[in-house]
Amino acid sequence: MKRRAALARALAFGGSLLILDEPYKGLDPALKERVSGYIAEYAQDKPVVLISHDPEDAAAAQSVIRLAHVPGGDG
Q1: Which of 28, 31, 63, 72 is deepest in the core (most CB within 10 A)?
Q2: pLDDT (tens digit per residue) in 24-70
């Protein structure tokens, strides 16, 4: 419930940039579709950074930056 409230607040009051970390986590498919529409509407005139582990979410993005663990790296 807290995640949904935070997402609704971010979309309602906005700003010049929207950063979303796993915004669809815990949403059923119908609600995910609705929220996705709100995010797409918001993104028409403002940048949105959406962080997700779901390749389906990336497929809908205009640009994608993939980060991967490098074996033997620091992280």
Answers
A1: 31
A2: 998 899 999 999 998 898 889 889 999 998 888 888 888 999 888 77
